[in-house]
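Hi, can you check this record?
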Amino acid sequence: MRAAAGLIAPGTRRVIVKARYTRMAGGGLDAARAHLRYIQRDGVTPEGARGRLYDSDGDDADARTFLDRSERDPHQFRFVVSADDSVRLHDLKPFVRDLMAQMEHDLDTRLDWVAVDHFNTGHPHTHIVIRGRDDRGRDLVMARDYISHGVRARAQALVTLELGPETDIERVQRLANEVSQERLTALDRSLIAWARDGIVVVSARDERDRAQGTFRTGRLKQLQRLGLAEEKQPGVWALDPHLDSKLRRLGERADKFRMMQRALKEAGIERSVAAMALFERGPRKEALIGKVVGVGMVDEITDRTWVVIDAVDGRVHYAELGRLAPEHAPVRGAIVALGSGVLGERATAVPKLDLVTDIELKHHIAYHGPTWLDQAAVAKWRPGPNTPGFAAELRSAIAERGRWLAERQLADLAPDGAIRPRRDMMRRLREAEAGRLVRDLKHHLGADYVPSEPGRRISGTYERSIPTPTGRLAVIRREDTFTLAPWRPALEPMRGRAVTGIVGPARVTWSLDRGRGLPGR
Protein backbone atom coordinates (compact mmCIF):
# COMPACT_ATOMS: atom_id res chain seq x y z
CA MET A 1 0.00 0.00 0.00
CA ARG A 2 1.28 3.47 -0.86
CA ALA A 3 0.84 5.29 2.45
CA ALA A 4 0.13 8.93 2.97
CA ALA A 5 3.08 10.86 4.26
CA GLY A 6 3.55 11.82 7.81
CA LEU A 7 4.71 15.26 8.98
CA ILE A 8 2.44 18.28 8.73
CA ALA A 9 4.06 21.34 7.19
CA PRO A 10 3.57 24.88 8.55
CA GLY A 11 0.53 26.53 7.01
CA THR A 12 -1.33 23.25 6.62
CA ARG A 13 -5.06 23.70 7.18
CA ARG A 14 -6.51 21.49 9.88
CA VAL A 15 -9.02 18.72 9.27
CA ILE A 16 -10.59 16.50 11.93
CA VAL A 17 -11.19 12.90 10.85
CA LYS A 18 -13.13 10.48 13.06
CA ALA A 19 -13.15 6.84 12.01
CA ARG A 20 -14.86 3.65 13.07
CA TYR A 21 -14.45 0.04 12.01
CA THR A 22 -17.67 -1.91 12.52
CA ARG A 23 -18.32 -5.62 11.99
CA MET A 24 -21.29 -6.62 9.87
CA ALA A 25 -21.95 -10.00 11.50
CA GLY A 26 -24.62 -10.45 14.17
CA GLY A 27 -27.01 -7.62 13.34
CA GLY A 28 -24.39 -5.36 11.77
CA LEU A 29 -26.40 -4.97 8.56
CA ASP A 30 -29.41 -3.69 10.52
CA ALA A 31 -27.11 -1.27 12.35
CA ALA A 32 -25.64 -0.15 9.00
CA ARG A 33 -29.15 0.41 7.66
CA ALA A 34 -30.06 2.47 10.74
CA HIS A 35 -26.83 4.48 10.41
CA LEU A 36 -27.53 5.37 6.77
CA ARG A 37 -31.09 6.31 7.67
CA TYR A 38 -29.82 8.53 10.48
CA ILE A 39 -27.22 10.43 8.46
CA GLN A 40 -29.90 11.10 5.79
CA ARG A 41 -32.36 12.47 8.36
CA ASP A 42 -34.21 15.79 8.09
CA GLY A 43 -32.57 19.08 9.03
CA VAL A 44 -28.98 18.48 7.91
CA THR A 45 -28.82 20.54 4.68
CA PRO A 46 -28.43 24.34 4.61
CA GLU A 47 -32.19 24.52 3.89
CA GLY A 48 -33.06 22.13 6.73
CA ALA A 49 -34.01 19.30 4.36
CA ARG A 50 -33.07 15.61 4.32
CA GLY A 51 -29.47 14.65 3.67
CA ARG A 52 -28.70 13.46 0.13
CA LEU A 53 -26.56 10.38 -0.37
CA TYR A 54 -23.93 10.61 -3.11
CA ASP A 55 -20.99 8.56 -4.38
CA SER A 56 -18.15 8.76 -6.90
CA ASP A 57 -20.53 8.67 -9.88
CA GLY A 58 -23.41 10.96 -8.95
CA ASP A 59 -25.30 13.08 -6.44
CA ASP A 60 -28.20 10.64 -5.87
CA ALA A 61 -26.83 7.33 -4.63
CA ASP A 62 -29.31 4.64 -3.56
CA ALA A 63 -28.95 3.45 0.04
CA ARG A 64 -30.83 0.20 -0.54
CA THR A 65 -28.60 -0.81 -3.45
CA PHE A 66 -25.49 0.00 -1.41
CA LEU A 67 -26.76 -2.13 1.49
CA ASP A 68 -27.62 -4.99 -0.88
CA ARG A 69 -24.02 -4.95 -2.10
CA SER A 70 -22.83 -4.86 1.52
CA GLU A 71 -24.91 -7.82 2.73
CA ARG A 72 -22.04 -10.33 2.80
CA ASP A 73 -19.28 -7.87 3.73
CA PRO A 74 -17.24 -8.74 6.83
CA HIS A 75 -17.06 -5.15 8.04
CA GLN A 76 -17.59 -1.52 7.18
CA PHE A 77 -15.56 1.67 7.63
CA ARG A 78 -17.24 4.91 8.70
CA PHE A 79 -15.56 8.31 8.59
CA VAL A 80 -16.60 11.82 9.59
CA VAL A 81 -14.45 14.46 7.88
CA SER A 82 -14.62 18.07 9.10
CA ALA A 83 -12.26 20.81 7.94
CA ASP A 84 -11.74 23.83 10.20
CA ASP A 85 -12.34 26.00 7.13
CA SER A 86 -15.19 23.93 5.69
CA VAL A 87 -17.47 27.01 5.55
CA ARG A 88 -15.17 28.34 2.82
CA LEU A 89 -15.65 25.22 0.69
CA HIS A 90 -18.76 26.14 -1.28
CA ASP A 91 -19.42 22.51 -2.22
CA LEU A 92 -18.01 19.63 -0.16
CA LYS A 93 -18.63 16.96 -2.79
CA PRO A 94 -15.57 17.66 -5.02
CA PHE A 95 -13.33 17.67 -1.93
CA VAL A 96 -14.79 14.36 -0.71
CA ARG A 97 -14.48 12.74 -4.15
CA ASP A 98 -10.86 13.90 -4.39
CA LEU A 99 -10.19 12.48 -0.92
CA MET A 100 -11.73 9.13 -1.82
CA ALA A 101 -9.73 9.02 -5.07
CA GLN A 102 -6.57 9.67 -3.07
CA MET A 103 -7.49 6.88 -0.63
CA GLU A 104 -8.02 4.55 -3.60
CA HIS A 105 -4.51 5.43 -4.79
CA ASP A 106 -3.06 4.81 -1.32
CA LEU A 107 -4.90 1.50 -0.86
CA ASP A 108 -4.37 0.38 -4.48
CA THR A 109 -8.05 -0.52 -5.00
CA ARG A 110 -11.33 1.01 -6.07
CA LEU A 111 -13.56 1.78 -3.08
CA ASP A 112 -17.32 1.31 -2.93
CA TRP A 113 -18.55 4.24 -0.83
CA VAL A 114 -21.43 6.64 -0.18
CA ALA A 115 -21.42 9.98 1.63
CA VAL A 116 -23.74 12.66 3.04
CA ASP A 117 -22.81 16.30 3.73
CA HIS A 118 -24.14 17.85 6.96
CA PHE A 119 -24.60 21.57 7.60
CA ASN A 120 -26.42 21.34 10.95
CA THR A 121 -23.44 22.42 13.09
CA GLY A 122 -20.98 25.31 13.09
CA HIS A 123 -18.61 23.23 10.96
CA PRO A 124 -20.03 21.62 7.80
CA HIS A 125 -18.82 18.02 7.69
CA THR A 126 -19.24 14.82 5.71
CA HIS A 127 -20.21 11.28 6.72
CA ILE A 128 -18.56 8.63 4.56
CA VAL A 129 -19.40 4.90 4.63
CA ILE A 130 -17.02 2.49 2.87
CA ARG A 131 -17.74 -1.17 2.15
CA GLY A 132 -15.39 -3.76 3.63
CA ARG A 133 -14.49 -5.35 0.25
CA ASP A 134 -11.89 -4.23 -2.27
CA ASP A 135 -12.36 -4.28 -6.05
CA ARG A 136 -11.22 -7.93 -6.18
CA GLY A 137 -13.83 -9.05 -3.65
CA ARG A 138 -11.27 -9.52 -0.87
CA ASP A 139 -11.52 -8.11 2.66
CA LEU A 140 -10.60 -4.42 2.60
CA VAL A 141 -7.81 -3.78 5.10
CA MET A 142 -6.62 -0.37 6.31
CA ALA A 143 -3.63 -0.03 8.62
CA ARG A 144 -4.40 1.55 11.99
CA ASP A 145 -1.82 4.29 11.37
CA TYR A 146 -3.37 5.10 7.99
CA ILE A 147 -6.83 5.40 9.55
CA SER A 148 -5.49 7.54 12.42
CA HIS A 149 -3.09 9.79 10.51
CA GLY A 150 -2.91 9.05 6.79
CA VAL A 151 -6.50 9.94 5.88
CA ARG A 152 -6.26 13.19 7.84
CA ALA A 153 -2.97 14.10 6.14
CA ARG A 154 -4.54 13.53 2.72
CA ALA A 155 -7.61 15.60 3.64
CA GLN A 156 -5.47 18.44 5.02
CA ALA A 157 -3.33 18.51 1.89
CA LEU A 158 -6.44 18.76 -0.31
CA VAL A 159 -8.00 21.59 1.72
CA THR A 160 -4.68 23.45 1.81
CA LEU A 161 -4.37 23.07 -1.97
CA GLU A 162 -7.93 24.35 -2.45
CA LEU A 163 -7.78 27.35 -0.08
CA GLY A 164 -4.05 28.02 0.04
CA PRO A 165 -1.83 27.71 3.13
CA GLU A 166 -3.10 29.08 6.43
CA THR A 167 -1.93 32.70 6.74
CA ASP A 168 -0.33 34.17 9.85
CA ILE A 169 -3.49 36.18 10.51
CA GLU A 170 -5.67 33.05 10.27
CA ARG A 171 -3.31 31.15 12.59
CA VAL A 172 -3.42 33.97 15.15
CA GLN A 173 -7.22 34.07 14.98
CA ARG A 174 -7.42 30.29 15.45
CA LEU A 175 -5.13 30.36 18.48
CA ALA A 176 -7.01 33.33 19.96
CA ASN A 177 -10.27 31.37 19.70
CA GLU A 178 -8.69 28.45 21.56
CA VAL A 179 -7.58 30.45 24.62
CA SER A 180 -10.97 30.47 26.39
CA GLN A 181 -12.27 27.07 25.26
CA GLU A 182 -13.44 24.61 27.93
CA ARG A 183 -12.26 21.58 25.95
CA LEU A 184 -9.00 20.07 24.70
CA THR A 185 -7.35 22.33 22.10
CA ALA A 186 -4.21 22.42 19.97
CA LEU A 187 -2.76 24.88 22.50
CA ASP A 188 -3.23 22.29 25.25
CA ARG A 189 -1.53 19.62 23.18
CA SER A 190 1.44 21.93 22.62
CA LEU A 191 1.63 22.67 26.37
CA ILE A 192 1.52 18.95 27.23
CA ALA A 193 4.25 18.22 24.66
CA TRP A 194 6.34 21.15 25.94
CA ALA A 195 6.03 20.21 29.63
CA ARG A 196 8.79 18.45 31.56
CA ASP A 197 7.46 16.37 34.46
CA GLY A 198 4.24 18.37 34.28
CA ILE A 199 6.01 21.75 34.50
CA VAL A 200 5.83 24.42 31.78
CA VAL A 201 8.16 27.42 31.83
CA VAL A 202 6.92 30.39 29.82
CA SER A 203 9.48 33.09 29.08
CA ALA A 204 9.04 35.89 26.57
CA ARG A 205 12.79 35.79 25.80
CA ASP A 206 12.62 32.11 24.83
CA GLU A 207 9.62 32.49 22.55
CA ARG A 208 10.53 32.72 18.88
CA ASP A 209 6.85 33.37 18.12
CA ARG A 210 5.60 36.11 20.46
CA ALA A 211 1.97 35.54 19.49
CA GLN A 212 2.30 31.87 20.36
CA GLY A 213 3.82 32.81 23.75
CA THR A 214 1.00 35.26 24.48
CA PHE A 215 -1.65 32.67 23.67
CA ARG A 216 0.10 29.98 25.72
CA THR A 217 0.14 32.30 28.74
CA GLY A 218 -3.51 33.19 28.18
CA ARG A 219 -4.40 29.52 27.91
CA LEU A 220 -2.52 28.69 31.12
CA LYS A 221 -4.49 31.39 32.97
CA GLN A 222 -7.74 29.91 31.63
CA LEU A 223 -6.63 26.45 32.77
CA GLN A 224 -5.90 27.94 36.19
CA ARG A 225 -9.47 29.27 36.34
CA LEU A 226 -10.66 25.76 35.53
CA GLY A 227 -8.48 24.32 38.31
CA LEU A 228 -6.26 22.49 35.82
CA ALA A 229 -3.02 24.50 36.14
CA GLU A 230 -1.21 26.48 38.84
CA GLU A 231 1.44 29.19 38.55
CA LYS A 232 4.08 28.14 41.09
CA GLN A 233 6.18 31.25 40.47
CA PRO A 234 6.20 33.85 37.69
CA GLY A 235 6.34 31.99 34.38
CA VAL A 236 6.49 28.53 35.95
CA TRP A 237 3.29 26.52 35.64
CA ALA A 238 2.30 23.07 36.93
CA LEU A 239 -0.21 21.23 34.75
CA ASP A 240 -2.82 18.88 36.13
CA PRO A 241 -1.49 15.33 35.58
CA HIS A 242 -4.82 14.37 33.98
CA LEU A 243 -5.18 17.56 31.92
CA ASP A 244 -5.90 15.74 28.65
CA SER A 245 -8.70 13.50 29.97
CA LYS A 246 -10.30 16.22 32.13
CA LEU A 247 -10.48 18.66 29.22
CA ARG A 248 -11.95 15.93 27.01
CA ARG A 249 -14.67 15.32 29.62
CA LEU A 250 -15.37 19.06 29.87
CA GLY A 251 -15.76 19.21 26.10
CA GLU A 252 -18.04 16.17 26.04
CA ARG A 253 -20.20 17.71 28.77
CA ALA A 254 -20.54 20.94 26.78
CA ASP A 255 -21.45 18.92 23.67
CA LYS A 256 -24.20 17.12 25.60
CA PHE A 257 -25.74 20.39 26.75
CA ARG A 258 -25.62 21.66 23.18
CA MET A 259 -27.42 18.51 22.02
CA MET A 260 -30.11 19.11 24.67
CA GLN A 261 -30.55 22.72 23.55
CA ARG A 262 -30.78 21.64 19.89
CA ALA A 263 -33.33 18.89 20.70
CA LEU A 264 -35.47 21.33 22.68
CA LYS A 265 -35.34 23.91 19.89
CA GLU A 266 -36.38 21.31 17.29
CA ALA A 267 -39.26 20.24 19.55
CA GLY A 268 -40.36 23.87 20.07
CA ILE A 269 -39.69 23.75 23.82
CA GLU A 270 -38.12 26.61 25.77
CA ARG A 271 -36.17 25.70 28.90
CA SER A 272 -33.32 27.35 30.79
CA VAL A 273 -29.89 25.74 31.14
CA ALA A 274 -30.59 25.48 34.89
CA ALA A 275 -33.39 23.02 34.08
CA MET A 276 -31.06 20.71 32.13
CA ALA A 277 -29.27 17.72 33.64
CA LEU A 278 -27.08 14.80 32.63
CA PHE A 279 -28.47 11.44 33.70
CA GLU A 280 -25.59 10.04 35.71
CA ARG A 281 -24.71 6.48 36.58
CA GLY A 282 -25.82 5.35 40.04
CA PRO A 283 -28.58 3.56 41.92
CA ARG A 284 -32.08 5.08 41.87
CA LYS A 285 -35.09 4.13 43.94
CA GLU A 286 -37.45 4.56 41.01
CA ALA A 287 -37.29 5.22 37.29
CA LEU A 288 -37.79 8.72 35.94
CA ILE A 289 -40.93 9.13 33.80
CA GLY A 290 -40.74 11.53 30.89
CA LYS A 291 -41.41 12.34 27.25
CA VAL A 292 -38.77 11.84 24.55
CA VAL A 293 -38.03 15.20 22.91
CA GLY A 294 -34.89 14.19 21.02
CA VAL A 295 -32.97 11.10 20.00
CA GLY A 296 -29.81 10.58 17.98
CA MET A 297 -26.43 8.90 17.73
CA VAL A 298 -23.49 9.89 19.90
CA ASP A 299 -20.95 11.81 17.76
CA GLU A 300 -22.84 10.52 14.68
CA ILE A 301 -20.33 7.77 13.91
CA THR A 302 -21.01 5.14 16.56
CA ASP A 303 -24.14 3.05 16.97
CA ARG A 304 -24.58 4.39 20.51
CA THR A 305 -27.87 6.21 21.03
CA TRP A 306 -28.51 9.33 23.07
CA VAL A 307 -31.93 10.50 24.23
CA VAL A 308 -33.25 13.76 25.67
CA ILE A 309 -36.22 13.43 28.01
CA ASP A 310 -38.53 16.11 29.42
CA ALA A 311 -39.21 14.48 32.78
CA VAL A 312 -41.86 14.74 35.50
CA ASP A 313 -39.27 16.20 37.91
CA GLY A 314 -39.35 19.45 35.91
CA ARG A 315 -35.93 18.96 34.34
CA VAL A 316 -34.69 17.91 30.92
CA HIS A 317 -32.32 14.93 31.04
CA TYR A 318 -29.66 13.75 28.58
CA ALA A 319 -28.77 10.05 28.70
CA GLU A 320 -26.59 7.76 26.59
CA LEU A 321 -28.17 4.35 26.08
CA GLY A 322 -25.39 2.37 24.42
CA ARG A 323 -25.97 0.40 21.23
CA LEU A 324 -29.63 -0.31 20.54
CA ALA A 325 -31.20 -2.45 17.85
CA PRO A 326 -33.48 -0.32 15.61
CA GLU A 327 -36.62 -1.84 17.17
CA HIS A 328 -35.44 -0.76 20.64
CA ALA A 329 -34.69 2.87 19.73
CA PRO A 330 -37.14 5.37 21.29
CA VAL A 331 -39.11 7.77 19.10
CA ARG A 332 -39.85 11.43 19.71
CA GLY A 333 -43.08 11.91 21.66
CA ALA A 334 -42.94 8.49 23.33
CA ILE A 335 -43.37 8.27 27.09
CA VAL A 336 -40.57 6.32 28.73
CA ALA A 337 -39.17 5.30 32.11
CA LEU A 338 -35.45 6.03 32.53
CA GLY A 339 -33.69 4.16 35.30
CA SER A 340 -30.35 2.73 36.34
CA GLY A 341 -29.07 -0.24 34.42
CA VAL A 342 -28.31 -3.14 36.74
CA LEU A 343 -25.91 -6.03 36.26
CA GLY A 344 -26.15 -8.39 39.21
CA GLU A 345 -26.30 -6.07 42.20
CA ARG A 346 -24.30 -3.23 40.64
CA ALA A 347 -25.46 -0.25 38.60
CA THR A 348 -24.01 -0.23 35.08
CA ALA A 349 -22.70 2.77 33.15
CA VAL A 350 -25.57 2.48 30.65
CA PRO A 351 -29.03 3.57 31.89
CA LYS A 352 -32.07 1.38 31.28
CA LEU A 353 -34.86 2.84 29.15
CA ASP A 354 -38.28 1.18 29.20
CA LEU A 355 -41.07 2.19 26.83
CA VAL A 356 -44.24 3.18 28.66
CA THR A 357 -46.12 4.03 25.48
CA ASP A 358 -45.12 5.30 22.04
CA ILE A 359 -48.52 6.99 21.61
CA GLU A 360 -48.23 10.75 22.20
CA LEU A 361 -49.97 12.06 25.31
CA LYS A 362 -52.56 14.12 23.40
CA HIS A 363 -53.96 10.91 21.88
CA HIS A 364 -54.67 9.40 25.32
CA ILE A 365 -57.26 11.98 26.31
CA ALA A 366 -60.27 10.74 24.28
CA TYR A 367 -59.10 7.20 23.53
CA HIS A 368 -61.83 4.52 23.66
CA GLY A 369 -59.74 2.04 25.59
CA PRO A 370 -57.32 1.84 28.51
CA THR A 371 -54.51 4.39 28.58
CA TRP A 372 -51.42 5.04 30.64
CA LEU A 373 -53.31 7.96 32.24
CA ASP A 374 -55.94 5.48 33.46
CA GLN A 375 -53.25 3.21 34.88
CA ALA A 376 -51.79 6.20 36.73
CA ALA A 377 -55.25 7.02 38.12
CA VAL A 378 -55.74 3.45 39.35
CA ALA A 379 -52.30 3.63 41.03
CA LYS A 380 -53.26 7.04 42.53
CA TRP A 381 -50.20 8.65 40.97
CA ARG A 382 -50.04 12.30 39.91
CA PRO A 383 -47.13 14.64 39.09
CA GLY A 384 -46.18 17.40 41.54
CA PRO A 385 -48.67 20.30 41.68
CA ASN A 386 -46.27 23.09 40.69
CA THR A 387 -43.62 21.23 38.70
CA PRO A 388 -43.08 22.78 35.24
CA GLY A 389 -42.39 21.16 31.87
CA PHE A 390 -43.76 17.72 31.07
CA ALA A 391 -45.32 17.53 34.54
CA ALA A 392 -47.55 20.52 33.68
CA GLU A 393 -48.47 18.92 30.33
CA LEU A 394 -49.29 15.72 32.18
CA ARG A 395 -51.48 17.47 34.77
CA SER A 396 -53.50 19.05 31.98
CA ALA A 397 -53.90 15.72 30.15
CA ILE A 398 -54.99 13.95 33.36
CA ALA A 399 -57.63 16.63 33.99
CA GLU A 400 -59.01 16.31 30.43
CA ARG A 401 -59.00 12.51 30.59
CA GLY A 402 -60.78 12.68 33.94
CA ARG A 403 -63.60 14.76 32.44
CA TRP A 404 -63.85 12.34 29.49
CA LEU A 405 -64.13 9.35 31.85
CA ALA A 406 -66.65 11.11 34.11
CA GLU A 407 -68.91 11.96 31.15
CA ARG A 408 -69.11 8.23 30.36
CA GLN A 409 -69.72 7.15 33.96
CA LEU A 410 -66.36 5.37 34.06
CA ALA A 411 -64.91 7.47 36.87
CA ASP A 412 -65.74 10.25 39.31
CA LEU A 413 -63.79 13.44 39.91
CA ALA A 414 -62.64 14.40 43.42
CA PRO A 415 -62.83 18.08 44.53
CA ASP A 416 -59.06 18.39 43.99
CA GLY A 417 -59.40 17.06 40.41
CA ALA A 418 -58.11 13.55 41.15
CA ILE A 419 -59.66 10.75 39.08
CA ARG A 420 -61.54 8.15 41.13
CA PRO A 421 -61.97 5.12 38.85
CA ARG A 422 -65.17 3.11 39.17
CA ARG A 423 -64.72 -0.56 39.90
CA ASP A 424 -65.39 -1.75 36.34
CA MET A 425 -63.58 1.11 34.54
CA MET A 426 -60.55 -0.81 33.25
CA ARG A 427 -62.64 -3.86 32.25
CA ARG A 428 -65.06 -1.72 30.23
CA LEU A 429 -62.22 0.17 28.58
CA ARG A 430 -60.39 -3.05 27.64
CA GLU A 431 -63.58 -4.53 26.17
CA ALA A 432 -64.22 -1.38 24.13
CA GLU A 433 -60.67 -1.39 22.74
CA ALA A 434 -60.63 -5.12 21.99
CA GLY A 435 -64.03 -4.98 20.26
CA ARG A 436 -62.94 -2.16 17.98
CA LEU A 437 -59.55 -3.69 17.12
CA VAL A 438 -61.03 -7.13 16.45
CA ARG A 439 -63.75 -5.70 14.16
CA ASP A 440 -61.16 -3.77 12.14
CA LEU A 441 -58.79 -6.73 11.86
CA LYS A 442 -61.54 -9.21 10.93
CA HIS A 443 -62.52 -6.91 8.08
CA HIS A 444 -58.90 -6.34 7.00
CA LEU A 445 -57.65 -9.94 7.31
CA GLY A 446 -60.83 -11.80 6.42
CA ALA A 447 -60.18 -14.10 9.38
CA ASP A 448 -61.86 -14.99 12.68
CA TYR A 449 -60.50 -13.88 16.04
CA VAL A 450 -59.25 -16.39 18.61
CA PRO A 451 -58.43 -14.81 22.01
CA SER A 452 -55.20 -15.70 23.81
CA GLU A 453 -55.46 -17.35 27.21
CA PRO A 454 -52.94 -17.39 30.09
CA GLY A 455 -50.79 -20.52 30.08
CA ARG A 456 -51.68 -21.41 26.48
CA ARG A 457 -49.28 -21.58 23.55
CA ILE A 458 -49.77 -19.18 20.62
CA SER A 459 -48.46 -20.17 17.19
CA GLY A 460 -48.71 -18.47 13.83
CA THR A 461 -47.09 -15.87 11.60
CA TYR A 462 -46.17 -12.56 13.19
CA GLU A 463 -47.79 -10.04 10.83
CA ARG A 464 -47.35 -6.65 12.50
CA SER A 465 -47.80 -4.71 15.71
CA ILE A 466 -50.59 -2.32 16.68
CA PRO A 467 -49.68 0.63 18.94
CA THR A 468 -52.05 1.40 21.81
CA PRO A 469 -51.70 3.87 24.72
CA THR A 470 -50.79 1.03 27.09
CA GLY A 471 -48.34 -0.78 24.81
CA ARG A 472 -48.18 -2.59 21.50
CA LEU A 473 -50.17 -5.67 20.53
CA ALA A 474 -48.82 -8.33 18.17
CA VAL A 475 -51.05 -9.68 15.40
CA ILE A 476 -50.42 -13.44 15.09
CA ARG A 477 -52.01 -14.85 11.93
CA ARG A 478 -52.92 -18.41 11.06
CA GLU A 479 -54.61 -19.64 7.88
CA ASP A 480 -58.14 -18.49 8.75
CA THR A 481 -57.80 -17.10 12.30
CA PHE A 482 -55.76 -14.50 14.15
CA THR A 483 -54.84 -13.69 17.76
CA LEU A 484 -53.81 -10.50 19.56
CA ALA A 485 -51.04 -10.86 22.14
CA PRO A 486 -48.62 -8.57 24.02
CA TRP A 487 -45.80 -7.39 21.76
CA ARG A 488 -42.11 -7.52 22.65
CA PRO A 489 -39.21 -5.87 20.76
CA ALA A 490 -37.70 -9.33 20.23
CA LEU A 491 -40.60 -10.09 17.86
CA GLU A 492 -39.65 -7.44 15.31
CA PRO A 493 -36.81 -9.35 13.59
CA MET A 494 -39.29 -12.24 13.19
CA ARG A 495 -41.88 -10.24 11.24
CA GLY A 496 -43.43 -12.39 8.51
CA ARG A 497 -42.08 -15.61 10.05
CA ALA A 498 -43.67 -18.43 12.04
CA VAL A 499 -43.42 -17.79 15.79
CA THR A 500 -44.57 -19.46 18.96
CA GLY A 501 -45.18 -17.94 22.38
CA ILE A 502 -46.28 -18.88 25.88
CA VAL A 503 -48.75 -16.49 27.54
CA GLY A 504 -47.55 -15.74 31.07
CA PRO A 505 -49.15 -13.64 33.83
CA ALA A 506 -47.55 -10.39 32.65
CA ARG A 507 -45.84 -11.10 29.32
CA VAL A 508 -45.42 -13.51 26.42
CA THR A 509 -42.11 -15.24 25.72
CA TRP A 510 -41.63 -15.44 21.95
CA SER A 511 -39.38 -17.60 19.77
CA LEU A 512 -39.19 -18.74 16.16
CA ASP A 513 -41.42 -21.75 15.47
CA ARG A 514 -38.85 -23.94 13.72
CA GLY A 515 -41.10 -27.00 13.59
CA ARG A 516 -43.69 -25.63 11.18
CA GLY A 517 -43.46 -24.77 7.54
CA LEU A 518 -47.00 -23.39 7.17
CA PRO A 519 -48.54 -22.00 10.36
CA GLY A 520 -52.06 -23.10 11.16
CA ARG A 521 -51.91 -26.25 9.00
Notes: Confidence is low (pLDDT under 50) at residues 1-7, 515-521. The radius of gyration is 28 Å. The chain has five domains: 15-163, 169-241, 246-357, 361-426, 427-512. The longest helix spans residues 243-266.
